[in-house]
Amino acid sequence: MTSVSISTPLKALALAVSLSLLGACAQTPNAPTAAAATPVAPVAPATAAAPAAKALPRVVVLATGGTIAGAGASAANSATYAAAKVPVDKLIAGLPELGQIASVRGEQVLQIASESFTNQDLLTLARKVSALAKQPDVDGIVVTHGTDTLEETAYFLNLTVHTDKPIVVVGSMRPGTALSADGALNLYDAVATAGSQDAKGKGVLVTMNDEIQSGRDVAKAVNIKTEAFKSPWGPLGMIVEGKNYWFRAPVKRHTVQSEFDIERITELPKVEIAYGYGNVPAELVEAAGKGATAIVHAGTGNGSVANRVVPTLQKLRSGGVQVIRSSRVNQGGFVLRNAEQPDDKYDWVVAHDLNPQKARILAMVALTQPRTAQDLQRIFWEY
Ligand code: DAS
């Protein structure tokens, strides 16, 4: 190979031209190369007009608080800090890279730690998301949220907001003031996903720690690592440098396929959770079910119920309270009908693979109207 020393720009140009010629040869090995068949067109003058910039997707960030808006006293405070301090405009201004991937604006819906979310907060937020999703000048929505109940809000939006536009819920495990804070990249990923066409129609999504999770499946599995959010059946995809890589799509009903609509929900019924454990007193379960529309029993293993608690649940059922057996097993409780308890005989419902807190969300939405246990069970299989 003859080596010729030429100045760098010319070298780059020469390399580009030779590579393009090589490419032409590689594509059609037997046909004459472009150079042999026709004279090489002159390189376009540097002054040629750049192609029109592609319009950036329009993404709205709805902020509710949490660690992603948190602040600590020092960079070493990754776990000791105050949540819900930084306003949404500062979150956005602190991440100028967002301007390269979307046209972003923010709204402060709440400024709270998410353990303090109420049913009314869920309704307020979902109504806001639903209204924005209807706007033609909105392509995607991001909800910044505390991580403690993020999984509940994501599922609630998944069940009640009728849009195929991407809705992405995002949080962080460390405040922005900490070393190796995770919020900035999580937020960047959320905006990138909310602005991407390929995220449409996949239900509500959660972007944490480079993964794209289903809002239905994902739950906080660890409370001290940035790799905190897990779905028992795996993430839907990954996001790397603002690009989505999908591996699966949800099959359970969500958003536009849902029979539930936030526009038709005025309030949420009282649904409580009773935790199962060794020596659990039946009185605790009875108190949880008092005045409730439904009770979710967070049972051991396959949703098992202590023998001293069964009569209490039967009594609640006979009083009109729906009884839903879930499992306290982290990351993948899977409760089967008539396995640990005669659900048909007791007229009880099983929560399928939903953890207790997600089972409560679905039960609240489903029981915004009276239902038989059979119809409620259908809903737990479908959503
Ligand atoms: N207290 C937690 C919350 O607001 C902080 C967090 O992890 O976001 O959910």
UniProtKB/TrEMBL annotation:
The active site is at 67 (o-isoaspartyl threonine intermediate), 67, 147. GO terms for biological process: asparagine metabolic process. One of its GO terms (molecular function) is asparaginase activity. Pfam families: Asparaginase, Asparaginase_C. Substrate binds at residues 114, 147-148. Residues 1-26 form the signal peptide. Residues 270-380 form the Asparaginase/glutaminase C-terminal domain. SMART domains: Asparaginase. The keyword Signal applies. Keywords: Hydrolase, Signal. Residues 58-249 form the L-asparaginase N-terminal domain. Belongs to the asparaginase 1 family. This is L-asparaginase. It comes from Ottowia oryzae.
